[in-house]
Amino acid sequence: MNIKTKIYAASALALAVGTFSTSSFAAQATSSASGTVIQPIAITKAADLSFGKFAPGAGGTVTVSTSGARTASGVILSSIGSSPTAARFNVTGDAGATYSISISAPANISDGATTPTTMALSTFSDLTGGGATTGNVASGTLTGGAQTIYIGGTLTVGATQKAAAYTGNITVTVEYN
Amino acid sequence: MALRRTNLPLASRRSTIPAILALACATSVFDARAALVEITSTQALSFGRFVAGTGTVVISPAGARTTTGAVIPLGSDPGQAAQFRVTGDPNASYAITLPADGTVQLSNGSHSMPVKTFTSSPASTSVLPGGGSEILNVGATLEVGSTMPAGVYSGSFSLIVEYN
Q1: Cα separation, B62 vs B48, whole angstroms
Q2: B146: nearest CA in chain A?
Q3: Do A31 and B37 touch (CB under 8 A)?
Q4: How many pairs of residues across A and B have Cβ atoms under 8 Å apart?
Q5: How far apart are CA A61 and CA A156, in angstroms?
Q6: Of A94, A91, A89, A83, which Cα lies nearest the Cα of A50?
Q7: What radius of gyration, in Å, describes the C-alpha atoms of chain B?
Q8: Residue A37, pLDDT above cutoff 90
């Protein structure tokens, strides 16, 4: 009985030694971690760029500003059955995010015939629809998660321009940056 | 009066031994370290803002962010590395234990993304400078899924430092 008691006493002491010596040599800290997934950027067309109806007159130009206002030089404008509009593209995505804008417009619009007849086209754009007739936007900011891109253009009309409906496609690409 | 030999009772014998050993313990601890090693979190880990897609977001210990696969990073919030302050004995060597893969994730409701491949600078061991304090930078890799809905994902992780 004496021997057993001594052994227990010795064991208890050994354990106490082990615990006492290691607790002061290590430390731990916790940090938070986070990440924010945002919605992808998206673009939809809300309106086409339309120059409406006009007669060649002496030949010249027809311009539709970013507000949709149409003016002409040398060309005779017709207001019957004609509703000129600037193109409008609606962009949506992460509120406050900035993005790049790339506008690809054809050099001319075509009547689509087998031997096509064309009219030269130049385009310009802004983010306000404020009536600009020159310049291009290359970037924007999604204030409130949305923004609209307005595109106007100028057509060059020949004095003997063939009567037809002329069409073309404008492509707008947007990308978070 | 006759002399009587008396054996010390067992209890008495036992009590002398613990006293000697306890003294040995106390002496060894006080000789080895004058200060506890301590660590506190000073900057949280953030992967910033990004569009989800199958791929990863990597934050280096220096705080530089890169993405792989279909993940699109947003410049408006490029994230940051975590930082900790380690203090202790000047010139003391210590080891760093980072979380193992599979133990940390960022969650948003029922959706979660694993955080793995923790890296740090210093890497696995360091020596405290003469001032007894240094910054430990930590980065990691976030595995992103293409179906993760938009929102803030959060979580936490722990580090252990130990004199060695």
Answers
A1: 15
A2: A37
A3: no
A4: 150
A5: 5
A6: A83
A7: 26
A8: yes
Task: Please give the ipTM for the structure prediction.
Answer: 0.79
Q: Other CB atoms closer than 10 Å to residue A51's CB: what's the count?
A: 24
Closest CA to B75 of A38, A146, A172: A38
Query: Residue A15, class by beta-carbon neighbours within 10 Å (0-12 exposed, 13-18 middle, 19+ buried)?
Result: exposed
* Cα–Cα distance, A77 to B134 (Å, whole number): 76
Yes or no, beta carbons of A32 and B144 under 8 Å apart: no
Least confident segment among B31-40, B64-73, B125-134, B137-146:
B31-40
DSSP 8-class letter at B34:
S
Stated length of chain B: 164
Going through chain B in order, the beta strands assigned E by DSSP cover 38-43, 45-51, 55-59, 65-69, 72-73, 82-87, 93-97, 104-108, 111-121, 125-127, 133-144, 151-163
Q: Looking at the complex, report in whole angstroms how far the Cα of residue A81 sits from the nearest Cα belonging to chain B.
A: 45
Q: Does the pTM of the predicted model rise above 0.80?
A: no
Sign of CA dihedral A109, A111, A114, A116: negative
